[in-house]
Amino acid sequence: MEAESEPYVRLATLRRLHQSMADLNTARSLADTLQTVADGIVKGLDFELAAVNLVKPDGDLVVAAVAGSEGAEAMMAGRTGSRAAWERRLALGERWGELRFIPYTEAWVLTDDDVPQWHTAGPAPRYADEWHPMDLLMAPMHSSDGELLGVISVDKPRNGRRPGAWGREALQMYAFQAGIAISNARLRANMQRALVRLEREQQALRASEESFRQAFEYAPSGMAVTELGGDQHGRLVRTNDALCRLLGRPAAALRRCSFSDLVHPEDLATLLRTSAEGGRAELRLARRDGSFLWVSLRNSVVADATDGPRFLLTHVEDIEERKRHELQLAHRASHDSLTGLPNSAELRARLGARLCDKPAPVPDAAQMGPGGAGGALDGGFGSDGFGTGVPGLDGFGLDGFGGVLPAPAGGYEHHVHTVPPASDDPSEKGLAVLFCDLDGFKSINDRFGHHCGDAVLIEVARRLSSGVRDNDTVARLGGDEFVVLADGLCRGDAADLAVRLRNAIIPPIRVEGRAVRVGASFGISWAGCGMSAEEVLHSADQRMYVEKRSRSKAHRRAG
Length: 559
Fold this sequence. Notes:
It is built from 17 helices and 18 strands.
């Protein structure tokens, strides 16, 4: 370095040092900063060689920049030294303030470590402070929190001497400023990478939003975005054209309502459950013309990482055709293909739904009035003679008052017992089962063919359906047998209904230009808990045969 007795040389060095530090702040990237650090050593501190060893993420140090010798740069740049080897050097070195110096007399022990170096052997110094090619001078660089950022290695001072106090202070001060510059450069690099990453993420987000918008707007099936939480919970925020066409409503009108305003009242519970839990549901939505359309709703709760659920994305698919087909299949499975009436399976299902396996308590004989379960055949239809009191066929366990008994303690919490009327008292009502068998139908089939018989069955089904209430059931049991379920009737009402239905069947039926006639025999049974559907139907069937045999063949014959 410069002679310590020459202040003007120190001033020149200080100026060059100041310029080198200023250059540190003009570097645009981390790589530029590292090279500027190395160049500043050569230009400002009068060393012919300088290398900047930078700490890598894995802790080892890589030669990131070399200045002063193209040969040394070619030999060292990019090579790595282990952290352990560097820590050994820094620990072995003589402390010159923050600097570390290892004289050539001790540096020979480091010859075989993995730290990249350019030193060559040379003759022994001629005087005490002469620089030897094997001398090592290192300037550690630290961050503001004391973390090791790297090490500056210098060699070949231009004056051929080991640096004095002034030179050491200058190198130490420069290393301090270089650490700050490298920290700032890393910060800028990290910020630039973060900005680039953020821009890419924003571009990806914009692309994703555009893709979602196009997929949402141009989806062939209905799509909707629904508000979650707050005062506007459930409100439709956004709808696509397909949903507007599906419901026959403009987007502006849909945005003023929610799905709960559009759903069929019977499907409201399903909608609320699906909206709360997500998932899929099939329900009916109201169209603008007042009709209801079967749709499949698939809900996805879109959540925010910090604020929780934000909105519900709903996919609305038209399943009207499938539902219609399913209903048709279900109708075919439960209804007679010829007459369209409920079939035997559906009849048994409806009847079984009203029955349980525990009968109502049976009162003693004193409580049972005339016409009770053990009464004679006194419940007929007058001159027509329809029996209603065959012993052993209508005793279902009565309370002597008719009507409905409460469920027994501990059982059937939601079941209302079905109880037959105990007497002819009009206030005692129950579920009447009328078993109808056509008289003279076989002769029509034999004389005119099955197509004529089918036409007769269709017309009889129509007349029976026309003669009952809307909530009554008329079913075809099979062949020429029909069953009517009529609830809320007393014994007299059931007898009157049988007479009306028989009279409705008797008038001639015109088939292919000819008039044919059939008669009908009715048997009446009463459904009650404690019996099965088969037992009730068997009871009505037996009563029908009793009624049929009680009339002469001439009175039964028709057609």
